[in-house]
Amino acid sequence: MRPNRLIGWYVFPALLIGCAVMVTVYFVQNPGGPMAARLLSYAQVLTSTRQHLILVLVSSLLAIMAAVPLGIMISRPQFRKIGIVIENVINIAQTIPSLAILALFMTILGLGFNTAIFALWCYSLLPILRNTFAGIKNVPEGAIQAAKGMGMTPWHILRRIELPLAYPIVMAGIRTAVVINVGTATLATFISAGGLGELIVTGISVGRDSLIIAGALLSAIMAILFDHILGQVEAALTGNN
Amino acid sequence: MIKLEKVTKVYSDQEGPAVDNLSMEIKDGEVCVLVGPSGCGKTTTMKMINKLEEPNSGTIYVDGKDISTVNSIQLRLDIGYVIQEIGLFPHMTIADNVATVPREKKWPADQIRHRVDELMEMVGLPPKIYRQRKPADLSGGQRQRVGVARAMASDPPILLMDEPFGAVDPITRARLQNEFLRIQEKMKKTIVFVTHDIDEAIKMGDKIAVMRRGKLVQYSSPDEILSSPANEFVSKLVGKNRSIKRLHLIKAESVLDSGISLTVKSNVPVEEVEKVIEASYIGVSMVVNGSGSLLGAISLADIREAQGIPTAGEICQPIFNTVDTGATLNDALSVMLNYGESFVAVLSTGNVFAGIITLGDLLELVKSDAA
Questions:
Q1: Which CATH number fits the domain that encloses residue B17?
Q2: Residue A166 C-alpha, separation from nearest chain B C-alpha, in angstroms
């Protein structure tokens, strides 16, 4: 158990970060031409990565804070019917391409960081909400009946029975949302909110592969890192680490 | 005491009432079995007693109090509730499952721990081994034991049991039923027990309430149900072989033959055993140790294969066709059929050999009953 924890929490993340550093160093040393060299400095990569991290973290946290309570609420028996309606509305909203959402919000909220956060937040809501709702709906009816019949209060049934049993599914929703979010955040550059997308988009416009590959690899590594860390959190909290 | 007065329950999505103007009384310390085909309203009736369902009309009294005036959480905390094994909380350990109601009642932690250990001991799951296991690690029979222990955790005077022994094989079920009856003999709870299995009803009930389409068809003791069914429905439910069903009502200890002539001590030499076997009407000799515990049986074939002059204890073979003294004759019969033997050894606590019941004994009983 102990070595597993060591690998899960420290060794594997350190390896991923090591990869990211190697990718950065390699491309900064071999930018492939003077124009790319100007754009591919350590400072630039660091700034883009930091912006990307903040975009993902802030929008994901806000999405979790909104979608989990909402999911719990619409799973209450008295709201279930409304819940299905809300779920469907968000389901349809999710089919709008992410780039279109960014553009749409740009026309309303203008350019910049806040708009990007808001768009990413909208986009992360659904997987979390849907999984929270599904997770609670899937709790065995027998367990709830038994809990109720033994005199547990609705609040205790939610806290001690429904949420712990729904938890792995909720967590899977959060992981999906965050991983998608890392990818979608590369589009934030179009509304001048920065992020690793800036490397990629600049790379495309100046025709330099090194920029595109550096940006793509770094965001891919970030996605894997987030997914892994959330997996560790999940395992730690369910106690089967 | 539980009393139902003209209780009716109608579901909007169903034709006809689920429970129709039902009145009955369940006395303290009695096991009342609600039995009937599916959809007859037995589960609904039970669920109205702990307010999982509210009747459309009529009144239910628990201990003289109209339960519609009682807070449902308070009411339920004082009524044990067992449903089929799916009712265990899969994410909690066995100890946490059993501790559910005491926790809701905010007992101090050490009292809860003590009570959980006591209950697990009572239902035959040593707490040292099982406390930290999850329901998924247990067999079906063990899970149902946990369900019973959990319902008894705060020592409620009333238990509601919805097919509590439904999802296990017949042998395990018989064992659970016997264990439960033994516990009930000491605890004297007021129990409402729902089943669709008339055999189980006959075995478990002090009173049986036969239900059909939401109505009470007959409410009387198992013996009466068997001897004078109220109408054709009840006699069909009970079935043709009523005298065989009576086997459910007779305890093994009341008919066994003490089998002294069949028994040898483990230290007797083999020639003596041979004489006993030749005189034995079951073709084997039972071997017991100094304190009377059954070690096994010896047949003539075992003696023939034996080398030298061993004692009985050295050549006896373990036997599995055994029942407890508390088992019914029906249990004895199913054990015989299961092992293809024409007798069972009856054991009291500590494996002490109490006697023998043969297939012939059972036939004799059924015959005299039918006559």
A1: 3.40.50.300
A2: 10
Give the residue from A139, A141, A150, A161 with the most B CB atoms within 10 Å of its CB, the best one to mutate.
Answer: A150
In the numeric block, the tokens 């040593």 are attached to B126
Task: Tell me the C-alpha distance between A134 and A7, whole Å.
Answer: 32
Asked whether the beta carbons of residue B81 and residue A143 sit closer than 8 angstroms, the reply is no
Q: Using CB atoms, pick whichever of A140, A151, A161 lies closest to residue B76.
A: A151
Q: How far is B98 from chain A (nearest CA, A)?
A: 11
- Report the complex ipTM: 0.74
> Where is the domain boundary, B228, B248, B268?
B248
In degrees rounded to 5, what are phi and psi of residue B131? -50, -45
Give the 3-state secondary structure of residue B19. strand
By DSSP bridging, strand B322-324 and strand B294-299 are unpaired
Q: DSSP string covering B91-159, please?
A: TS-HHHHHTHHHHHTT--HHHHHHHHHHHHHHTT--HHHHTT--GGGS-HHHHHHHHHHHHTTT--SEE
Q: What is the mean pLDDT of residues B350-361?
A: 86
**Mean pLDDT across the stretch A65-84?**
88
B309 and B339 belong to one structural domain: yes
- Domain boundary pick from B248, B279, B306: B248
- Scanning every residue of chain B, which has its alpha carbon at the shortest distance from the alpha carbon of A146? B87
> What domains are there in chain A, each with its CATH number?
2-238 (1.10.3720.10)
d(CA B256, CA B278): 21
Residues B230 and B298 in one domain: no
B26 CB burial (10 A radius; 0-12, 13-18, 19+):
buried
A63, B227, B240, B245, B364 from B370: Cα distances, Å: 75, 11, 11, 11, 10
DSSP 3-state assignment of A97?
coil
Which residues in chain A have Cβ-Cβ distances shorter than 8 Å to B73?
151-153
The number of beta carbons lying within 10 Å of the beta carbon of residue B321 is: 17
* Facing B77 at nearest CB: one of A140, A151, A161: A151
pLDDT of residue B292: 84
Q: Name the pLDDT band for A241 (thresholds 50, 70, 90).
A: very low
Contact: A165, B50; criterion CB under 8 Å = no
Segments forming the whole domain that contains residue B160: 2-248
Same domain, B236 and B340: no
- Whether the pLDDT of residue B85 is over 70: the answer is no
Type and span of the H or E element at B79: strand B79-82
Minimum Cα–Cα distance from A165: chain B residue: B91
Reported as a single tens digit per residue, the pLDDT across B210-245 is: 998 888 999 998 888 888 888 888 888 887 677 777
Nearest alpha-carbon partner for A62 in A108, A113, A128, A112: A128
User: Are B296 and B318 part of one and the same domain?
Assistant: yes
Contact A226, A182 (CB under 8 A): yes
In total, how many domains does chain B have?
2
Say how many CB pairs under 8 Å bridge A and B: 61
What is the model's pTM? 0.72
